[in-house]
C-alpha cells in the first residue's frame, strides 16, 4: 500500500513493529527446528531493521518536505514508491 504522508507511513511502520515484537522475546516458542529458528530470527530482525529505516528513505526537497510522485504517493531517493516490506512470517 503506498503512503501519501510521512505520518501515515510512520503509523503503519509502528504497527508492524508492534506486531512483530513478540518474535524477538527470548521466551517466544517456535515450532521450528533450531537451525530454522535461527534463520527465522535473522529474517525477522532484518525485517524490523528495514521498517525502522523507512522514514529515512523518504525523498525530500530543498525545504525538507516529502516529495510525492504524480499519483500523490511518497517516493524514495531512487523515485520508487515507498511501501512496507513483506512480513517474513
Average predicted confidence as pLDDT: 91
Q: What percentage of amino acids are in beta strands? A: under 5%
Overall morphology = elongated
Largest sheet data: none
Q: Count of DSSP helices?
A: 2
Q: Percent range for helical residues? A: 25-40%
Low-confidence stretches: none
Q: Can you write the helix and strand succession as a string?
A: HH
C-alpha-based Rg, rounded? 16 Å
Total strand segments: 0
Distance between the termini: 18 Å
What structural category arises from helix and sheet content?
mainly alpha
Number of domains: 1
Short key terms for the protein model shown above:
mainly alpha; 89 residues
Question: How is this structure best summarized?
Answer:
The chain has 89 residues and is an all-alpha fold.
Detailed description of the structure:
The chain is mostly helical and 89 residues long. It has one domain. Helix content is 39%, strand content 0%. It is built from 2 helices and no strands. The protein has helices spanning 6-20, 34-53. Helix 1 runs antiparallel to helix 2. The chain is elongated and about 50 Å long. The two termini are 18 Å apart. The mean pLDDT is 91.
What is the topology?
Elements: H1 6-20, H2 34-53
Helix pairs in contact: 1-2
Amino acid at each position: 500500500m503506498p503512503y501519501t504522508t510521512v505520518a501515515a507511513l510512520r503509523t503503519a511502520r509502528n504497527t508492524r513493529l508492534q506486531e512483530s515484537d513478540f518474535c524477538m522475546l527470548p521466551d517466544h516458542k517456535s515450532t521450528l527446528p533450531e537451525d530454522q529458528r535461527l534463520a527465522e530470527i535473522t529474517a525477522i530482525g532484518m525485517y524490523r531493521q528495514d521498517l525502522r529505516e523507512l522514514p529515512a528513505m523518504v525523498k525530500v526537497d530543498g525545504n525538507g518536505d516529502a516529495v510525492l510522485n504524480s499519483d500523490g504517493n511518497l517516493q524514495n531517493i531512487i523515485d520508487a514508491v515507498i511501501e512496507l516490506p513483506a512480513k517474513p512470517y
